[in-house]
Amino acid sequence: MAGNDSRAKTLNFNVGVLGHVDSGKTSLARALSSTASTAAFDKNPQSRERGITLDLGFSSFTVDCPDHLRDNEGQQQYDSLQFTLVDCPGHASLIRTIIGGAQIIDLMMLVVDVVKGVQTQTAECLLIGELTCPRMVVVLNKIDLLPPNKRQSAIEKMTKRLHKTLESTRFKECPVIAVAAKPGGPEAPELEEPQGVPELIELLKKQTYLPKRDAKGDLLMAVDHCFSIRGQGTVMTGTILQGSLAINDTVEIPVLKVTKKIKSVQMFRKPVSGAMQGDRVGVCVTQFDPKLLERGLVCTPGSLRTLYAAIISTRKIGYFKGSLATRAKFHITVGHETVMAKVTFFGLPPADTEPTPSEPSSLETPFTFDREYSYQDEYVSRQKEAASGPDPEQWALLEFERPVTCPALCLVIGSKLDTDIHANACRLAFQGCLLHGFEDKSYAETSLPQLRIFKTKHKEGQVERVTDDYSVIGRSLFKKETNLQLFVGLKVSLSTGESGVIEGGFGQSGKFKIRIQEGLRPETKQLLSSSKKKGKSGGKGGPSSEEEPKTESQSVSIHLHFKRYVFDPHKKMVQS
């Protein structure tokens, strides 16, 4: 807030109104609201036709500041409390907008149709709430649709059911209140008063707290609407996610790579000299075409980074049913953008994941380029193995289909938004925190080779024959076309216990020579000479010579173990 203004001070408290499509969120916001901000109530023509909110509508109403918001000395810092209602869209396909709106929300208001109860999207809203918001109020709407004689018992039944659903979430004791925001439905004339709304306002007041607002740090503002005013300039309305702004500050619109100077600042149509984190503002700049930015981020010049790829910590979302496979594509919501990305999961090598008795297993291992990691075909989930305890620590490399602009260390949500909207399944798959970003377009050549994620390989072949006490000829370990030079010098072990080193190729068919430094044991030589006699009949290179030792269980196998770094351009093989 502009603290030095002589004007009365207002605390802005952001309430996210989430819920299933058609649960009556917009009517509820309208019933609650007195000052509708520009973006509010369905400015989208598509939305107006269907009566469904498409963009994050914002509207607000102001009440007296409740007593419990006094500071430690009992002083009232604020004269009034302004609730900004962030109406988040309900359709499943628009879940990305919700995730965009959820990062600035101080309290969630989950609207549930009292007749239909919890639906797929309601569950997804709960998840987003859990990831982004500490408190929630549940509003049972449309109680006018219940027959008056059964109304009370139906409300009690639904309240019980909701408490059961919420038991396993961070909102387990949250209040549930019943209302009818628009008796008779959206088309009904405005004759009937909404029911339960004054009680809801009182409940909202009780739930408020002084949100942690910090004016320090770089400015980051989420713009949700942009329009021009003749003779004034272009107004961008939005919410300040972090930092602060003031008249004459220069701000950057990173997507467009342009900077602009702030001419004036308004909060709900009243001019102010500045604003800070959590405030909802209109910022006026000149010589800027509003069509270039409908929504997006505005920041302190140079503070946001544009990333082509990123490394994140990952946790699977429990309700997601599928597996999370490496190389699969997910919708990644990061900052205020949702973009497709290819995902590679990796974790600590097996030896590092066993906690030593003295060390608690919940220890967070920070990600660093100095450590080696092991490649995973998919996210490893304890749930899948029916084991208890948290999932092992894991990370993911995200390779974006187009660059994204986002703040450091922001929340990342991965989802499968192409899943059928009507399938009753949660589409939010994993969440994490952005740990490292790659800003170089050619990161695959310049930076990825430093990311040491390895795959362990195991190849198995057979000893074909003994050449002398210190060397054998092997086969079936390599394809004919393999360049054997790459493998020269690698260690191998025989199933009989000896170890040796590959010396080079032998002939043209992928056979090779192994040097056994310690020499062959007498029993190995005997074993090999006995199996060799059996297979003489096949002649050189005939089909039976390929299969000779298989007739005899005494064949000696050769084992080659090595690891290869996934992003090593030279595909070098490494043995420990």
TrEMBL record:
GO biological process: selenocysteine incorporation
UniProt xrefs under InterPro entries: eEFSec_C (IPR049394), eEFSec_III (IPR049393), EF-Tu_GTPase (IPR050055), EFTu-like_2 (IPR004161), P-loop_NTPase (IPR027417), Small_GTP-bd (IPR005225), T_Tr_GTP-bd_dom (IPR000795), Transl_B-barrel_sf (IPR009000)
Compartments it resides in: Cytoplasm; Nucleus
Residue span, Tr-type G domain: 10-212
Cofactor(s) it depends on: Mn(2+); Mg(2+)
Gene Ontology MF: a single term: GTP binding
Keywords: Cytoplasm, GTP-binding, Hydrolase, Methylation, Nucleotide-binding, Nucleus, Phosphoprotein, Protein biosynthesis
Family matches, as PROSITE patterns: G_TR_2
Primary location recorded for the protein, binned into one broad class: cytoplasm
UniProt-annotated stretches for the region Disordered: 526-556
Catalytic activity: GTP + H2O = GDP + phosphate + H(+)
NCBIfam families assigned: small_GTP
Function: Translation factor required for the incorporation of the rare amino acid selenocysteine encoded by UGA codons. Replaces the eRF1-eRF3-GTP ternary complex for the insertion of selenocysteine directed by the UGA codon. Insertion of selenocysteine at UGA codons is mediated by SECISBP2 and EEFSEC: SECISBP2 (1) specifically binds the SECIS sequence once the 80S ribosome encounters an in-frame UGA codon and (2) contacts the RPS27A/eS31 of the 40S ribosome before ribosome stalling.
Name of the protein: Selenocysteine-specific elongation factor
